[in-house]
Every structure is written in structure tokens, then in C-alpha cells.
Amino acid sequence: MISKRNATIFCTTNYKSWEELRIEIKWKVDIENDDPDDEASSNRFDSIDQTFFFLSMHLLHALHLHIFAYTILRITYMMDVFCVLFLL
């Protein structure tokens, strides 16, 4: 018996109308001779699930930090341009 699990995490953020940042994580596991009553195969799936979950959370956290930093830089740049124009 072959057991398959699929999971996809998808996050899209628009910086501007023409710019798009997208992260997509695809995961697929095929384990042969998977017996639901077998504790060893259940533990293998649990371990893989946990690893995938933590990897996904770290990547999404990094993505959110990147978006936050990019937004702050854009605001700072716009404020600098406004101040220069105001002083002129």
C-alpha cells in the first residue's frame, strides 16, 4: 500500500500593481507499506508533518519581515522626496 500526503502553502502579496511577491511551498511524501496500525509509520508521518510545519512557518515569517522592511523603506523614501520637494 502506498500512502500519499500533499500540502501546499501559498502566500501572495502585492507591493504595487505590477509587482508581486509569491512564495509557494509544495510537499509530497510517498511511503510504501504504510500501515495505519503501525506505530513506526505513524511516527514517520508525524515527524515529517512537524518538520514541514516549522519550515513553512519560518519561511512565512521571513516573508512577512521582508514585506514589513520593504514597506518601511518605501515610506521613508516617499517622505524624503516630499521633504525635498517641500524645501524647494
Quick overview:
The chain has one helix and two strands. With 88 residues, the chain is of the alpha+beta class.
Write the layout of secondary structure elements.
Blueprint (H helix, E strand, L loop, with lengths): L1 E13 L5 E13 L6 H49 L1
Antiparallel strand pairs: 1-2
List keywords for this structure.
56% helix, alpha+beta, 30% strand, 1 helix
Beta-strand residue fraction: 25-35%
Please report the total strand number as a whole number. Answer: 2
Structural classification:
alpha+beta
Shape: rod-shaped
From the alpha-carbon coordinates, what is the Rg to the nearest angstrom?
22 Å
* Average pLDDT level: 57
How many domains? The number is 1
State the helicity in percent bands. 55-70%
Question: What's the story with the biggest beta sheet?
Answer: 2 strands, antiparallel
* Strand order in space, largest sheet: 1-2
Order of helices and strands: EEH
- Uncertain segments are 1-33
Distance between the termini: 75 Å
Helices, by number, come to 1
Can you put this structure into words, describing what you see?
The protein has 88 residues and is of the alpha+beta class. It has one domain (2-87). It is 56% helix and 30% strand. It contains one helix and two strands, in the order ββα. A two-stranded antiparallel sheet has the order 1-2. The N and C termini lie far apart (75 Å).
